[in-house]
Amino acid sequence: MQWSDVLNDPSLRDLPYKIELDALGRIVMSPASNRHGIQQAKLVQLLSRTFAEGEIATECSIGTHVGVKVADVVWMSPEFSRQHGDTTPYPQAPELCIEILSPSNSPTEIQDKVRIYLGYGAQEVWTLAEDGRISLFGPEGQRPASIFPGVTGDLRL
């Protein structure tokens, strides 16, 4: 299955699940809780206060060698937006990708997503734990501080 097939399939439009594709084009679904949606909204608010320019998106699809991955929240620079517009899925990751952790996520799955987003161009990846703690990652591993100006201190929601 291709990502355009997922987008155009009426039977998949109203599912209460986050949908991704694996490397073989198979649908992978993760249930979304109300807590997840609330945390997405809080992250959007945090990013809108932090970044004066650029675009913020939720459920951002990124085409990768292991299928289409969907970041919960992203920030993309004006340059990224000019280059890619609303291409779906994006052929590379926006500069900042954020994953909201849930009980259904395995540590390996999250480590793989962090690695994939960074490998596809993200400059930084954040994970949001259930306790509200935000961890930051770059190609070198976990970071004590963000590389983005204006992002300071111990990040929590």
Automatic annotation (TrEMBL):
Gene3D superfamilies xrefs: tt1808, chain A
InterPro entries: Nuclease_put_TT1808, Restrct_endonuc-II-like, Uma2
PANTHER family referenced in this protein's UniProt entry, alphabetically: SLL0198 PROTEIN-RELATED, SLL1222 PROTEIN
Protein name: Putative restriction endonuclease domain-containing protein
Domain Putative restriction endonuclease: residue ranges: 17-140
Pfam families: Uma2
Organism for this UniProt entry: Halochromatium glycolicum
SUPFAM superfamilies cross-referenced by the UniProt entry: Restriction endonuclease-like
